[in-house]
User: What shape does this take?
Amino acid sequence: MDRPRILVAGSINVDLVAHVERLPAPGETVAGGRLERSGGGKGANQAVAAARAGGAVALVGAVGDDDLGAQALEELRAEGVDVGAVLRLAGVPTGVALIAVDRDGDNQIAVASGANHAIEPAMVEPALAELSAGAGCVLASFELTDPIVLAAARAARAAGGALLVSPAPARRLPDELCDARPILVPNEREAYELAAAGGAAAARPHSRAGGDDAEAAGRRLAELTGAPVVVTLGARGALVVDGDGAHALPAPAVRAVDTTGAGDVFTGVLANGLAAGDDLRGAAARAVEAAARSVTVAGAR
Assistant: This one.
């Protein structure tokens, strides 16, 4: 049986992770931590998750011509991800994420985007057109700039495959992207922020209450895109908002060690399911289970 084909247009970073007792407040230093270095970037993490779920995954993105970029590509190849279309940009640093993780598994992340934000549409449009043909799902994330996300959306639309968008970090949705009818996969806070940016008075960007607020934000986003929305809710699972209403998908109870990258695992496994022809709710339920397992070990992958 042929493996489902997924095209990921996304970021590639190296993660520098400090495990600390608690997350620092603004201006505060928390000492005594433990440092780890690993592959990261939403696009790369999602590509790895989709490949581990059984997909044939091609990644479009960029790294620098430095040692970090070479290491990132080597790690992706080892995971079975096709990196033939990943650019190596001379004189530009590879993206780096600085991550602090506390004893409860919560995190803070700061990203120096580097090569991820140096890509121009003309650099990747031929690869996007070629690799989207025959792909069951095209996945793009907001760690790339709007012109690259829109180029991926146009490629997906031309090829007729599903378009999945991870809108993180949250910013206003371009009209052209909404016209492409993407399935958005925000987390709860991102859903509030995106809905508020679209003019939804019911959304509360700073609320952590969940429930009706997450559903209201999801419904507003579905109105903007004309497509289903999947809101991830951390330990509470996920919420699928589609034409039949809002459907809660609870997560299994686990002991969280590190929540970094859990959303990327969810999105990558979801992309694989859609590429395989699964229905959205079934694919999302499997993605919830995979994301729950991912937080029981340290690291974004």
In short: The longest helix spans residues 280-294. The domain at 5-11+41-93+114-294 is CATH 3.40.1190.20 (UDP-N-acetylmuramoyl-L-alanine:D-glutamate ligase).
